[in-house]
Design brief:
- The chain contains 36 helices and 31 strands.
- By secondary structure, the protein is an alpha+beta fold.
- It folds into five domains: about 5-200, Orthogonal Bundle (DNA ligase i, domain 1), CATH 1.10.3260.10; about 255-480, 2-Layer Sandwich (D-amino Acid Aminotransferase, Chain A, domain 1), CATH 3.30.470; about 490-645, Beta Barrel (OB fold (Dihydrolipoamide Acetyltransferase, E2P)), CATH 2.40.50; about 720-775 and about 800-865, no CATH class; about 870-1070, no CATH class.
- Strands 13, 14, 15, 16, 17, 18, 19 and 22 form an eight-stranded mixed beta sheet that branches. Strands 3, 4, 5, 6, 7, 8 and 9 form a seven-stranded mixed beta sheet that branches.
- The longest helix is centred in the last third of the chain and has 20 residues, at about 760-775.
- The protein is globular.
- GO terms for molecular function: ATP binding; DNA binding; DNA ligase (ATP) activity.
Amino acid sequence: MPFRFAYVGDLLQKLDDNQQSRTGQTINSNIVEKWFWEHRASFTREDFNAAPLLSTLLPEKRTDRVFFLQSKTLARLISRTLGLGISRLQVLEQWERPGTGVDLGDCVERILLDTPNVWLEDVTVEEVDRALQNIASNCHFSSPSVRASRANSSVDKELELSSLYQRVSPRDGKWLTRLILKRYEPVVLDPNTIYRGFHPLLPTILKVQEDFAVAGRFLQEHVRRKGVTGADLSRDDLALRLRPKLGVKVGRQPWHKGRSIRHCLDMSRGRISCEEKLDGEYCQIHIDRSKGHNCIQIFSKSGKDSTWDRSKLHEAIRSSLRLGQRSCPLKTGCILEGELLVYSDKENKILGFEKIRKHVSRSGAFLGTEQDSQPHSYEHLMIVYFDVLMVDSESLLGVRRSQRRKILEGLIHCQEGRSQLVRRHIIDCDKRSAASDLRRIFAGCITDRGEGLVLKSDDPYFDFSTRRRPYGSSCIKLKKEYIGGFGDVGDFAVVGARYDAARAKSYVLPNLKWTHFYIGCLDNKDEVVRWGRQPVFVVTNVVELNATQMESFITHANPPYQSEQDNESIVIKIAPGIDMGKKPSVIFTDPPVFDIRCFSFHKEGNTDFWSPRFAMVNKIHFDRSYVDVLSFTELQDAARMEKEMPPPLDSQELMGWIAALEQADPKRTTGERTSQTTTITTVSTVRTELTPSPVQSSKASQRDTMPPIPESPLSVMRRVKMTQTTTAELPTPPTSSSLEPPAEDAPLVPQVRVVETLQKRKCELQTASRQSKARKQRPRDSPPTSSPVQTSSNSSPTPRGALADITSSSQSRDNASVLSRVANRRMAGIRSFRMPAIPAENSSGLSLASFCTAPEQCGCAAITAAIDAQSSDIHATASLRLREVDDTPRARLRHSTSALSLPMGTAPTGSTSHELSCIFSGTACPLRHVSFLLAPCIANMPWLTEDLFSKHGISPADFITTAEDWKCMASSASATRIGGCESTIGSCKRRKKIVLVERRRKEATAAILQEIEALQLRRRNGRREYIPVYDWRIMEALTNEEERHKCLPGKVETRFDIRSAASVWKKYWVGLA
């Protein structure tokens, strides 16, 4: 019996009215359930076909149907169908005007209200479904099965639609228009609510057979069987009767996003498989051997049949399953899941996602490839299998994942570059080391430049039982961008916007003028900053705002705008592939600034540059101008660094990511099950967790050399005044003072304090270190005590030395290392500025000093700064050639402290250690203990050597122009240590070295790198020393960032993303010497 389309209009209109009402809203699911109950008699008839109704209620699920009708094209068809004149045509076109708040469906309803149709007969759901099927069958972008259903050689769209629009009511005409456009907004129907409302077993059926027509026939058979037997079908019977069917796509498991390591473990239990997430296209492969050579059928993630679009993959599938050979393990067929990728035989690796569009067509057409290179002979498609759902008519949906993996390994014959099984690790979530294991695996994935992990529990593919555990039979997707703060890119300018009527309906905001915003980067930032030239922007993405952001943008930003024709303020460049060729309707003359985050970088179709992938607005900046946004060159450099930088050869970056992931986990409250506990004491950090976490290792060397957390060095020190105030209160001890051995019964200091003399600080460090060791030996359940710490009788006391020996003793090194880690711990809501870690052969010998002055640790940071001030780096400067300086006040101040013959970094007696300091960060400036080597082409640039360097307190003694000086300095420093350096306060630390070059001059850069390599510089342990090389413009960027982010009284700064791909250090990275 036909089902009237007016009944569907009733449901949609009730949901729309409920959405628009401000008070007394009813839950949408209750409205849907009540509607299905009212029409239950029609749905339970034996001759009722569920497919047309489900296709009408959920048009977005019919991805196999493509109508090739957008709003403008449909409006022209409706105009001809209804025979509209000029006045009514103007009413129909009101949806295009920004701020009207109506879409095309509202305009159709208004026209039919003014001139109603002559009622002939009711329009049925079956008629609407048949007309849309005919229209879709005439479009070559529809699936092969839909195109094959076409009866005639051609279909007249206007004729098909005229029989509907000339008979519907005004209200039904509105919903019919939105049905054709596949957008019911602002009404959003939940598919599971629709399925359950129609029949309780329909959600389970569609999981196994994701096709409305097939599921409808299954339910019809069930209704007939129930009419004969009188018994309903239970879930257990359904699990036995229902099985996958070749040629019908199987639904996918539920997917969840992991927001942290702890969040992932909270959703898991038992043994889980940590599989590598690949950046490709999902494939569900059906093999039906009864079809002979054409036995392969491939479904995409959306459910569309893409067998012939992915024909280049067929050969890899045949060889992996040995189809056509006697050794083929299949009798009738199978259903497999895998990921389609592009492999390069030349580079012996999997290529990026953007390479797929050259090898895979879309319904026979290659889209977005105008700016791409031609497919090379050494590039080809490959398949990576990760699951099997059916083998020889035997369903594996109820089989555990571990067993399915064994079956899959027996089916697939792996070939390098053609077919393989996904790489995985097994973790037992019931063990205490689960968090540490998962953290280490995920950190390894990040350092290998992988996309992420997929965590799968050892459960059946689908759970048909009535008692389901939360998150059972589901997958957890873990990417670093899902973890807060790891996916920030930077600031982008909003150069234009356009209006979409259907999208505007979902905001429920009056007079909304814009829905989509065009963001871009400055292409001539240097010219704009220096000479005030007209800004030129390159549009990289189009983003949308959520309701809260949109309301804030309209209220506080509301920037001035002009039409694209009248715009003369800025110049914008929009590639053809941006927003599918759509252009902004307005141009913002004073572009506002959005803080953007993304998942990675990619090259959009028909573009030749890198842009953020899945860009999202993280924040709207109302206090910044377009001059502060990223330049286009900076974005491209950051993207190339992210995509093309090879994995590190050592474990420095790996250990840093493990520590960062540990800090990203939310803190547990008392009484919760903990996988790790962190306690910060006076000078030690005690962690109770099983290995192999780098921050809690049984080896002291691993604790002492814990690498800094990987940070985006674009972040800047935010606590300048606090640091300077704290360090100013610390008196400078005399250089000739010595330390007395501390008392054995010194009590435990409950918190970090700022003390008055260096002697007292040194004593407290030693005492606290012994007490922390005693606490580690004390049973875990024993309460802390304030009584003096007793030394074990069977252990000999640690001998103490004089001041000259303290910094070189193992105990003091432990104290300094632990104290440095405490001082460098990032606090929430505070920005920090760190030097990047330098890769080398051995991670234990690598560490660049990190700087942090969190308010909670000012005392600890001040102690570190004070000790460092008395333990300055010693370098001989007998052969150091100093540049001529002018007789300016700054220059006189620079040389007024001591004679130039003193060792570099050593203060003369009776004076402070550093007369010059950074004007932004003071003594906490990360460039304070760095020795620079300048390339000859930039050595005489006053802008660099006098202006930029002086702002950071870098004197001519801190940079050299020839690499040979480093060799002489190392020899002199060695002689100084042998000759009596131990009598001075502090240790003989080596200065960190950095090379600044003009990277545009490649030959000059290569020459200075060869000069450094010829020196064969060595560390104290005899290993090769690696020196980072940067472009000199890093000094400009650091200076700008420090000036922009310097701490102001009463200003609370949000934490800058320390892992942002837009890092200053990454942008200007050249290489290692």
